[in-house]
Amino acid sequence: MDDDIQVFADDEESKDRQFVNALARGLELLRCFRPGDTELSNAELARRTGLPKPTISRLTHTLTKLGYLGFSESRGTYRLAAGVLALGYALLSNLDVRKVARPYMEELSEYAQVSVSIGARDRLSIVYIESCRSSANVTLRLDVGSRIPLATSAVGRALLCGLPQGERDYLMDHIRLRDEENWPRVKAGIEQALRDYHERGFVVSAGDWQKDVHAVGVPMTGVDGERAMAFNCGGPAFLLSRERLIGEVGPRLVELVHKVEADLGRA
């Protein structure tokens, strides 16, 4: 079963009268589709969710009727349909931070010749909601919708640093449970990020996520009821030495985030 997919027991509704189990399972099924997954069969969806094939068949039939999935009769497979895109577009189009931040992100991206992105948390991952690439021939090619780990990436660690202590502890406990073997190393990286954030205003991930990728991250101040977000600036390690990250790129990213917060009326 896919680690990012949750399966809800049949008695979930009896434990929480407001919880609709069938709806939860349908939404989890949609999460099975990842970048590169053009089409999936009922058998593959059953494997990824751990749900019985008859349950999967009812869910895919319903989601197809509602326009969230498309069905290929010749191949017997399903694909995401326009209904899912409409939901995603509605979310992105209503995020003012993307419109405000884009010019600043483009400026920093061209200056540093690397990528600048905004990420929001989805469980134990970060999903990019905006991304700018420079005109450099060599750069990170992560677009809107890309998922990267919360615990080891600069943007993920920055987001953790910006959370209240209780929420951060809750997430760190789940990160530990996900990968107990590597937890000591992951925990040390997060704790170092917290120290760096309090000292410099930004965090560093130098080869912690991918050995040839260096990046800095800065959390953005949120408001009540709003999803936490963070910015990062990253690229190939040979373009972004640790010294350049700390002495040049990190401070510029902090300045960028302060400008965005001021334009949004949060400073």
Q: Can you describe what's shown?
A:
This protein is of the alpha+beta class and 267 residues long. It is 47% helix and 18% strand. The chain is built from ten helices and nine strands. The chain has helices at residues 12-15, 21-30, 42-49, 53-65, 82-93, 96-112, 154-161, 165-178, 183-200, 242-263; strands at 40-41, 69-72, 77-80, 115-122, 125-132, 147-149, 203-206, 213-220, 229-236. The strands form two sheets. Strands 6-5-4-9-8-7 form a six-stranded antiparallel β-sheet, sandwiched between helices. Strands 1-3-2 form a three-stranded antiparallel β-sheet. Strand 4 and strand 5 form a beta hairpin. The longest helix has 22 residues, at 242-263. The protein is globular. It starts with 11 loop residues before the first helix and ends with a helix. The mean pLDDT is 91.
Structure summarized in a few sentences:
The protein is of the alpha+beta class and 267 residues long.
Highlighted features:
267 residues, alpha+beta, six-stranded antiparallel sheet, three-stranded antiparallel sheet, 10 helices
The percentage helix is 40-55%
Assembly type:
single chain
Order of helices and strands: HHEHHEEHHEEEHHHEEEH
Enumerate how many helices there are, as a single number: 10
Q: Are there runs of 5+ residues with pLDDT below 50, and where?
A: none
Cα gyration radius (Å): 20 Å
Write down how many β-strands occur, each being a DSSP E stretch of 2 or more residues: 9
In what order do the strands lie side by side in the largest sheet? 6-5-4-9-8-7
Q: What is the 3D form? A: globular
Average the pLDDT over all residues and give the rounded result: 91
| Beta-strand residue fraction | 15-25%
Distance between the termini: 44 Å
Largest sheet properties = 6 strands, antiparallel
Secondary structural class? alpha+beta
